[in-house]
Amino acid sequence: MTTNRRPAPIPVTIQLQRAFDCLQRGERTAAEAHCAALLKQQPEHPEALHLMGLLALQGKRLRKAVQLIGKSLALQPGNAVAHSNHAAALQALGDLPGALASYNNAIVYDPRFVEAHFNRGIVLGQLDRPQEAVDSFSRAVTLCPDFAAAYEQRGAALQRLEQWDAALASYDQALAHAPHNADVCVNRGVVLRALKRPQDALGSYERALALDPRHVPAHVNRGNVLRQLERWDEALASYQRALDVRPDCAEALCHRGNVYNETNRLDLAIAAYDAALALAPQYVEARCNRAVAHLLAGRLEQGWIDYEWRRKLRPRAFAVPLWRGRESLAGKTVLLHGEQGFGDTLQFCRYAPAVAALGARVILEVQAPLVTLLGSLDGVTAVLAQADALPPVDYHCPLMSLPFAFKTTLPSIPASPSYLTADTTKIAHWRAALGVAALPRIGLVWSGSDVENNNRRLRLADLIEFLPESYEYVCLQREICAEDAALLARHPRIREVSAHLHDFSDTAALCATLDRVVSIDTGVAHLAAALGRPTAILLPFSPDWRWLLERSDSPWYPSVTLYRQAQLGDWSAALAGLRDSLLARDPLLARRHLPPPR
User: Fold this and answer.
1) pLDDT reading at 402 higher than 60
2) What phi and psi values does residue 379 have, to the nearest 5 degrees?
């Protein structure tokens, strides 16, 4: 007699091993079948639940993965690998705090779990906690000294912290262990540019391209550093190579526009920005740079529209709405706030009286060194420093958005002869300190605070060669480098008073005692012009947009005369024009210049 008996179930350990073997071979369907059979025998088997969760994770069934691995961990909480896989599923779902907690648990149960430290660093970076990410990647490379990806990610986190030297060292360690990684070469180049080593950055980008000639970011970044080095044609060629590989690279188009912008080929610049924005309409940098091209060309109405996009680069939240020029301001309080450099604030604070004329109570928030000076501005109820607490207001508006709000065109620029005044007590102080003038006095500014910006820097030695001897000169700069200080010591007819210039109200009073101010494009140039002082401004070949092109006057400032470079980087024509102008005004008709330094 025979009996029908079911075959004996495969032992759990064998089913589990078969599932693992199938998983190793990439046979996910078979692995799932083995796990399902095992769970049918033991529904609470933690390893089978974990394995089923891992298979769900690999199949992008993320919520199922979280559920299954979570159930496994409830049964077997000490499984570090399961905690790590649970974290990976949560990370993929966008639950970064949950993922971090699970990676932390994995490390608690296995402090030497290298991958958990590494992935924890990735999550910390995504949570914008770069210093903690650095610590996590450092732990990973301590445990595994040849972990190239951990060095790379640590370099990226250090880069975000602007710890440039440390970032460079980490990228170098990544390349020592994985020398064929073009991405690391590109990131290393970005760091070298930040360290003001453009030639070395260029070499790093070219190393990336030797590894991968079709690496689009390498072509774009190479173009950027060539642009910085003013190797314009080579920069354009590099951007074109990026576009040959990826014709829809909006970034390459935008930067090509920058080359044209910086070489005064404005129509070509605008066409390049238009092409970039056709591909990426929300591309803020392209919008802002197109604005600059339109403004520099004098097409203000088009320029102001795009220029509003700059606010997305440094967003600032307010509890009150932005005033756009349409809303009634009768009986309302408006906060007008500075947002960029001193010159920008000094130029656009001119609109405050027009806002007050609409019936508004105007509160002005500006950089601290401008607070005292701007108290003289008509129509302003109060002037606050940027760190001060704000009073209740009904609207806010950045100062540089006021031309847009007032629909300013070239003919409608509010260009009164002067709109700021200096303190009379401080003026009297400076007149006494300087003494009676034997000759007309000229104030000088030859370098801005950003000494790396060639557009805002002129060698004092070069300027001196073009200064007529029949004037007295006063240095209006607060920051003077050691080289210039030594040169000033050899030219006693240039008075150096920087120790007594505490804020812009001091500089304004000093300017008020002078016959003329000569400056490169700095805040002092705007200050002198806003005071209505005769002001000569030395401009680079590609000037800031507010000075327009091919004109010697400014629609913003009636008292300004502009002296421009005729060629990129060559100040000689501008300085010769300045010299001739000063000689023409020289009451003694002298033709002598300050002697060269000995």
Assistant:
1) yes
2) 85, 0
